[in-house]
Amino acid sequence: MTLDYHRPEHPETYRAGFACIVGRPNAGKSTLVNALVGTKVAITSGRPQTTRHTIRGIVHREDAQLVLVDTPGLHRPRTLLGTRLNDLVLGTLAEVDVVGFCMPADQKVGPGDEFIARMLTDVRTPVVALATKAHTVPQPRLVEHLIAIEQLGESFGGFADIVPVSSLEDYQVDVVADVLCSHLPVSPPLYPQGELTDEPENVMIAELVREAALEGVRDELPHSLAVVVEEIETRPRRPNARPEDLDLLDVHVTVFVERDSQKAIVIGRKGARLREVGTRAREGIEALLGARVYLDLHVKVAKDWQRDPKQLQRLGF
Ligand SMILES: Nc1nc2c(ncn2[C@@H]2O[C@H](COP(=O)(O)OP(=O)(O)OP(=O)(O)O)[C@@H](O)[C@H]2O)c(=O)[nH]1
């Protein structure tokens, strides 16, 4: 982290700090982070709990720098993995300057939201309620939703603000940024300009592979998949390579599943599915690294990894 106290171009009122975006699974958190940052840093999907890692995106403005921490879907702990995720989330919530709490307009405010609201009262960070996916419902339903959010806030000490937003339809994303920034402390920028994420490349690569591997089979393996990037090697350049030729990288990745049956699903008939997964993930990885990539994918069974602390540690949780 760069602390830069001496740059005169930042006004004295410049604010900088951290915001955490929370909400139950599928609430639109990753999509909002992407819209705020303006580039694809977090991985989105139509299915719950694909964001396992805390991913930061940084919003650079004339008057403020907002460092966004995207959290995994908050949920009641069911497995050891769930417990760890919630610990991670609570620790993060206590450290940030403001929390954005997403409640999607296409779903009723319910027990899942109450659970999160209760957790938030423990950490004393200002909470901005965000009525996400606002443009996916008719106006009367949105109004009903905003009232339900207000009532939820009243029973848990009140929200600092309530903002309707539609990330994909680009409605009020800038207002969300304004409101979140208004809760940041006066501070010089925390990161150099232009930096979008400090997520290590291998975590982003793992997420790209995970997203590709889950494509179309999320019902069969929603939580049973973990991805580890084992090694990234640069192949020596050929002597006759032109300067504009891209480097070629060997990226070795292991996909862990819990059972043999799941391994068969990921690999597919005669390896056909795994080849598709590889092709899809490789395109994203090449775009991310700006190099040509040879992706070496392996699938291994790590039995009951969600419940085994040693396996969890090995898989980076
Ligand atoms: N039309 C519309 N769809 C949205 C909007 N925001 C999110 N979605 C969709 O809702 C689904 C879930 O969005 P995500 O951003 O992945 O949700 P999340 O809260 O990060 O989900 P988890 O990673 O499971 O916690 C995706 O299919 C998004 O495309 C929005 O503003 N408008």
Automatic annotation (TrEMBL):
Domain named KH type-2: which ranges?
A: 217-303
Describe the family membership recorded for this protein in Swiss-Prot or TrEMBL.
Belongs to the TRAFAC class TrmE-Era-EngA-EngB-Septin-like GTPase superfamily. Era GTPase family.
List the SUPFAM superfamilies hit by this protein, alphabetically. Answer: P-loop containing nucleoside triphosphate hydrolases, Prokaryotic type KH domain (KH-domain type II)
> Record-annotated residues binding GTP?
23-30, 70-74, 132-135
Q: Which GO terms describe its biological process?
A: ribosomal small subunit assembly
Q: What CDD domains would the database entry show?
A: Era, KH-II_Era
Instruction: Print the keywords alphabetically.
Output: Cell membrane, Cytoplasm, GTP-binding, Membrane, Nucleotide-binding, Ribosome biogenesis, RNA-binding, rRNA-binding
Q: What is the membrane topology here?
A: Peripheral membrane protein
Q: Report the main location listed first in the record.
A: cytoplasm
**Which cellular component appears as one GO term in the record?**
plasma membrane
Query: Organism's domain of life?
Result: Bacteria
Keyword Isomerase on entry: no
Q: Where is the Era-type G domain positioned along the sequence?
A: 15-186
Q: Which GO terms describe its molecular function?
A: GTP binding; GTPase activity; ribosomal small subunit binding; small ribosomal subunit rRNA binding
TM regions (residue ranges): none
Q: How does it assemble?
A: Monomer.
Report the subcellular localization.
Cytoplasm; Cell membrane
Protein name, as recorded: GTPase Era
Q: Report the function annotation for this chain.
A: An essential GTPase that binds both GDP and GTP, with rapid nucleotide exchange. Plays a role in 16S rRNA processing and 30S ribosomal subunit biogenesis and possibly also in cell cycle regulation and energy metabolism.
Its organism's taxonomic lineage begins at: Bacteria, Bacillati, Actinomycetota, Actinomycetes, Micrococcales
* PROSITE patterns documented for this protein: G_ERA, KH_TYPE_2
